[in-house]
Amino acid sequence: MHDTAQQLIETVTCAHRDKQSLSIHGSGSKSFLRLQDQGKPLSTLQHSGIVAYEPTELVLTVRAGTTIAEAESVLRKNGQMLAFEPPEFNGGTIGGAIASGLSGPRRPWVGAARDFVLGTRIINGKGEDLRLGGQVMKNVAGYDISRLMTGAYGVLGVILEVSIKVLPQPETEVTRVFELSVEKAIRHASELSGVANPISATCWHQNKLMIRLSGTETGVKQASRILGGEPIQDADNFWLSIRNHTHTFFQQGSFWRLSVPPASPHILHDSSEQLIDWGGSQRWLKTEESPENITQKALSAGGYAEQWHAADRANLRHPLQKNIMQIHKKIKQAFDPEYIFNPGTFYNYL
Amino acid sequence: MPSEHLKSLLSRLSRHLDKSQLLTSDEALAPYECDGLSAYRQRPLLVALPDTIEQIQATLRTCYDMDIPVVTRGAGTGLSGGALPCKDGVVLSLAKFNKILDIDTQNRTARVQPGVRNLAITEAATPYGLYYAPDPSSQIACSIGGNVAENAGGIHCLKYGLTVHNILSIELLTIDGEPLSVGTQALDHPGFDLLALLTGSEGMLGVIIEITVKLLPKPEIARVLMASFDGVERAGDAVAAIIGSGIIPGGLEMMDNPAIRAAEDFVHAGYPVDASAILLCELDGTASEVEGQIKTVRHVLAENGATEVRIAGDEQERMAFWAGRKAAFPAVGRLAPDYYCMDGTIPRKHLGRVLKHIDKLSREYGLPVANVFHAGDGNLHPLILYDANQQGQLRLAEKLGAQILELCVAVGGTITGEHGVGMEKIDQMCVQFQATELAQFHAVKDAFDPKRLLNPGKAVPELHRCAELGAMHVHHGQLPHPEIERF
Predict the structure, then answer these.
(1) How confident is the model at residue B1 (pLDDT cuts 50, 70, 90)?
(2) Is the per-residue pLDDT at B389 higher than 70?
(3) Chain A contact for B485, CB < 8 A?
(4) Domain residues of chain A, as ranges?
């Protein structure tokens, strides 16, 4: 539990004055998602601890350096959770979870990291200490800069604190498994998502479709009876392995992440290995196809593609349209006029 | 503006729009002089009613060239004066863009034009067992474009989220008429979260011309419980206890006694008129899920001092319970010639204190206040009753409203939960934010609209305006409500 906000503000103020680039780091668990890593290291790891938490308000305010594990352990004691299941990878922090904006298996049913961010305290590129958003569920005063910070990879500001909406843990969870081809699995998951039922995660890999149900004891039992399939052992660890990429699929080499509309038909028909979660919306592919082809296919499906863990990181970001790129540059200048934060980390022009 | 200037504007616009699409006569302009906040009125220079995207672009380009302010307008139901015209500006009405372009039942999305009514989306999706979740009270009339601009909420947003949680992409025109596609048809998009930045930006950053919204499967069943309490604080405690028990209800609404009486008189919903407060708690999901939750909530309500708990026996009774709540504003409107609706959000634990303080202020000002409350998410709607025909009462109501909002900020809340800042709460922004934070908002505005022509004067106050107000807010070096702890 440390409050190092003043030191961080001083460092940024000096860096602004000296036009010194800063590389903002938490635990470093997601550094493989940085396009480049330049500048003097600025660690938020020491700036940690719970600032405020009242379970019945459903709001947790934490300092950026707090680990996801620590935040979750406090929530668990009160029967609550970070519903967007942020990947921890290796010791990830809340600051990193918000800066990367990543979300786990529950995302399509409850929302993403950005959906749970209620407010932030940030340092902008001029060293100003700003409190934006709030600690309440609904707040439309001022532009939604807290959500803009989510997934911006630190290029707009140093996140000092975040207020996050939390949710009760479901009373019970059950996972059922089905033997299905990829085409049938996509269709099945999509059909199930179109009617009311307590699904909270799906994952297809090697002809097995896993479906997790969450809710009340009676509700889940009933849904599970209707759904059919077989029960699986150790389901919690299975979903953790999807969330944290410890599943064998993610263990070797590079792979593509495609974010597409859930019912998009099977995208690649070569010998590629595939893992599909988010009810069909997130598709992880290992394929020999050219980056141009994959990108094009994701685009024509209405989504986009990015390649993780490739040595050259050349396709780590989906390129932005020219006019969107222009507005990104202007927003960058509005927050960080000297371009001191994480230069080249998100896109090489930011 | 000199008539020469208007002439030149008209002559340029009439190259792209028909005469019937350009309103300038006093009579034609009158319906546009205010939005849902009718206490604020201003006639614009001109109203443009384009019916093609090219016409919107031409209007924007012309105004951009001539440095003429543009106020975009949807259905005009907003409650914060966000669509209040500028005297020397153009009102850009998107009312003609009222088509649902596509419903994708497999991916559960709808692509719509900005002028489509909120409820029309759900009506169009109903045959497929789907619906659009955000349901502001004005959903029968308000437009989806306005919902996005204000990040509209509604009764079910504790569980199903606000507008920002329920849209996938928008097509936007910037002030110079250039198109910008934000978002994808998937769940997220590369780059900054511009979708979140633009949602709730109150028409300050661009003009929304198309939206793709998410549709949700209709819950199998919805049941509603109504609990009576002999104190508002007890009702507040019961809300905390329901949430503490691990249940997120589909809707959780509270009304105080004046609001209960008004609603009962108006729609005969069967409300207990002697109760100090009632809670309406809707549980939705699968039948077996809801059955279990009803048991739990019933138990929690009894434990927390509910004097009576009723469960709507059938769909008709459920609709009647909600009809009272949904009609609360017009019902309260019958108690006095005018009412002024506030929109603060507070941490729920302060509800008792805040309501007591509002009651004290209400007596000080001599203006009655009825309270309806999105209790689950802490969004409070005090309705201040006044008579605009009595000299000074509007001003008094505004002052009382301002004090209520400052109270919300003082307990750690916000001046607006879902109605937006608009023109109405511009001064309270100076209370909620520091100068550096307001300057950051202006910098964001300048990234999109450097000439500051879109909806000027709204949403974010100029710093000098706050400086001038400073004397009012900081009295003898003390902030308002010094007795309240700040965090």
Answers:
(1) low
(2) yes
(3) no
(4) 5-168+327-335, 172-252+254-308
